[in-house]
Amino acid sequence: MAALRRALHFVFKVGDRGKTATFYRDVLGMSVLRHEEFEEGCKATCNGPYDGKWSKTMVGFGPEDDHFVAELTYNYGVGEYRLGNDFLGLTLQSSRAISNARRLGWPLSEVGEGVYLAEAPGGYRFYLLDEEQPQKDPVQKVSLAVSDLQCSTHYWSTLLGMQVLERSSEKKSVLLAFTDSQCKLELCDVGGPVDHGTAFGRIAFSCPREQLPEIEALMKKENQKILTPLVSLDTPGKATVEVVILADPDGHEICFVGDEAFRQLSAMDPNGNALLDKAMEADKSNEWFAKHNKQKASA
Predict the structure, then answer these.
(1) Contact, 115 vs 128, CB < 8 A?
(2) Residue 70: CB partners within 8 Å, gap ≥ 6?
(3) 174: region left, alpha or beta (phi > 0 left; psi from -120 to 50 alpha)
(4) H/E element holding 276?
(5) Long-range contacts of 238-245, Cβ-Cβ distance < 8 Å, separation of 24 or more
(6) Cα-flanking dihedrals φ and ψ of residue 72, to 5°?
(7) Of 153, 158, 175, which Cα lies nearest the Cα of 218?
(8) pLDDT-based confidence at residue 239 (cuts at 50, 70, 90)
(9) Is the pTM of the predicted complex or chain greater than 0.90?
(10) According to its UniProt record, where is this protein mainly located (predicted)?
């Protein structure tokens, strides 16, 4: 049953959409898969605890059906977010991204043999492996901080059904996935509390629609946190999806979405890139704040 579950994306809150677009498109070499604008906050707080105008941009190395991608959420009135220690990094294999960073003068530091660290605007860490970008998805793993590795491993493997692929007592980490061919989840024990700041993200998975009530019922039975019980989310002109939002023992947000409708919603939009550029051009919020001698909110 868990083998039918699929790792989809990680949600990043972004304060500077222009610089962020440069990083994902020009440095990493990802494509804009779709871009959507919303007039009010999401019922499942996809954009965080904000109720104003926001946008969602999906970027990745290929279609969402078989690639792990990034969801960039931009709240129009918020200029920056405080980073915690919860998100430890996303690892991808691409010597092309390393050469792009060098060519564009994007800061890069070597942190291991053939491993380079680049930071996205907002301070999010990306570990780039200096090997040829594979034909399949170059994104290998997402790393999250936990305060009690045993407790978190139980949650993700026993309750959510992920397979434990590797354990490292030296790194105090566990590597998990629903299937070996998907992007992996690495849990790393940081030996203390996990701070989510205000930049906290969310990891999303899909499952057959019929499993959503079962996941919710199991979490209730196990006295685990359900942030948003089963709810339908509308995207103007696109498929309506159903989601359940959970939180793990350290408060990492987890979205499960019904796979059938999500595959329709996540179809690549050939106009995605143009829609993002148009939205950025039309966004006069920076000018408005400058004209009124004000600064955008820091969340």
Answers:
(1) yes
(2) 9, 10, 11, 12, 24, 30, 58, 59, 60, 90
(3) beta
(4) helix 272-282
(5) 238/36, 238/264, 238/265, 239/264, 239/265, 241/265, 242/209, 242/212, 243/44, 243/212, 244/212, 244/215, 244/216, 245/44, 245/45, 245/202
(6) -100, 115
(7) 158
(8) confident
(9) yes
(10) mitochondrion
pLDDT tens-digit map of 51-67: 889 999 999 999 999 99
Cβ count within 10 A of residue 149: 18
Cα separation values, 8 from 36, 142, 151, 174, 206, Å: 17, 11, 24, 20, 7
50: tokens are 């904000």
The answer as to CATH 3.40.350.10 being correct for domain 6-292 is no
Encoded amino acid at 284, one letter: K
One-letter identity of residue 30: M
Torsion, Cα 39 124 194 295, to 10 degrees, reads -50
For residue 254, CA distances in Å to 155, 185, 248 come to 12, 12, 7
Residue 145 CA to residue 187 CA, distance in Å, equals: 6
Q: Which residues pair with 11 in a beta bridge?
A: 71, 202
- Residue 140 near residue 91 (C-beta atoms within 8 A): yes
Of 232, 198, 240, the C-alpha closest to 48 is 198
